[in-house]
Amino acid sequence: MKLKSIILFIFCIQAIYIQAQEAYQITYEKFSNGKKVEETNPIQVLANTHETIIGTQNSFNQYKKYPNELFYYTKSQSPIISTVTQFDSIHSIISNDSVSFNKAVFTLTKETKRILGLRCKKGTTSINSNTIDVWYVDNMNLNAAPTTVGLNLGFVLEYTRNNNMTIKASKIERQKDINPNQYITKELAQQPVDLLTYKDIIWKSKFVNISLLKDQQINFSANFSSNDSIYRFANGTVVVRKIKLPEFKKGSQLFLNVNQISNGDAYDRTGTVFIIPTTSEISLMDGLQKGINQLPVYTNGNGEKYQGYFLTDKYTPAVEIMRFFTPFGVNKFNHIQLKNQTWQNKANYRQEITEFQSLLSNKEVLIGFFIGNYDQGGHIISANITVHPSDGATIPKNKVQPIFNTVNVMEMAGQEYPTLFDDANGFTVEFTLKEDFKNTKLRFTTTGHGGWENGDEFVPKENTVFVDGQKVFSLIPWRQDCGSYRSFNPASGNFDNGLSSSDYSRSNWCPGTITNPYFINLGDLKAGKHTVQVKIPQGKPEGTSFSYWGVSGTILGE
């Protein structure tokens, strides 16, 4: 009898060992507002009694796609979740986290229902203002879930966020001789990084970052220098970067980022970022290198000569891709104190520029930066482009034709201020399209400047645009939110009425902001001659002060 008992005991131990090595493979499917979401690579989980790994179907077969993110859970008194990303078959990163795992506090209800034949209980929690409901089994000695939420409750078969997105188990399969950790053995041997570093590395791996400028001074000085890739002109107030850009995947989204601080100039200044086309006989680069007289001149009978504003047979104006306005002295003048006011350390400008992808992708380009100022310290800026792959994004317009740009970026080299709207008819540009443009838009940016109390900077003025004689746009461009940016303006003047200068509403700009373009639908334009006319009732001069308007227009089409 003793021998039989020993044999039975050994058999039971072996059975327990075999059971411990048995894993479950759980496949989940997604539903959005009750409708099944079709997927080719659904969430899949491998779990046994002491460990779990969350991935996708391709994570566990020969069709693995990179980057491949996995979550690995080990059961213990202090459970640990390891977050792993495999960038390719060689490179990967891992971070261990035992803190956030226990942050979600669940309210357990008495509700039950059956999923795949298993009787499930319900738990509810809130994460970042999202209501999360999970249906789980707690009597299988198994911790598994489609996300890390609810793992501590047991086996989660259904996860629902805000009653409209559901992840639900569709299949449970037994798997023998599979340990979840076999898919990350290399990573488990690595030195983990902290969770914040991990998230930063993963975030930055999702897009391409292209540096344009780093801590570049834009100031007014007779002593300025250039190098092989960064040129300075107009007494140092214009910087041009020559750079070869990579090819961008179709559907990518492009963003331009500019950071700016004062390096001595305390005033709000016009800033612009632009592409200099070099396919025509004359370009803005000719004016920058050889002098303003190289650029074609436009006159409207008022005696002024406006250089380089408009498209001609031989000249293509600069393509404006961002217009921004510096605040009053951010960073340099942060020593100015106001009660209960904390100043920002820098101004950040970020704008999508996807519509210009065809001018940038796989091209060597000249990208210019201008901040109008007469200060020896001037401003310091950094700039970069980020490229974000996005299969679901709208394919950008692939035809770009700049028509006009009256922002006088060569102001400090003698370029005339754009006061040409003193003519009631504004200006008219005739241009020729060499081919048909479909679904055409005019990208139109406008800001009013100059004068004091009665100047166009502070007086609303209607902008009207005509294409081929037909009115296509009429609007008063005006910003009333300038007071929202007070913390960027330490050197802004304060008046007897309790307002700061930076609080005042302006003609489509505020100190410390970007001016967004308007996209004006033009329909289909046939190849051949066309006209664009812009009319603005510009204010009269007041003594030595005068009003003017910076407008730029680029035709976009397919």
Automatic annotation (TrEMBL):
Entry superkingdom: Bacteria
Keyword Signal recorded: yes
One annotated GO molecular function: oxidoreductase activity, acting on paired donors, with incorporation or reduction of molecular oxygen, reduced ascorbate as one donor, and incorporation of one atom of oxygen
Organism of derivation: Algoriella xinjiangensis
Endpoints of the signal sequence: 1-20
Protein name according to UniProt: GLPGLI family protein
SMART domains tied to this protein: N-glycanase_N
One Pfam family matching this protein: PNGase_F-II_N
Entry keyword set: Disulfide bond, Signal
Residue runs in coiled coils: none
Chain ranges of the Peptide-N-glycosidase F N-terminal domain: 209-387
KW Cytoplasm (keyword) present: no
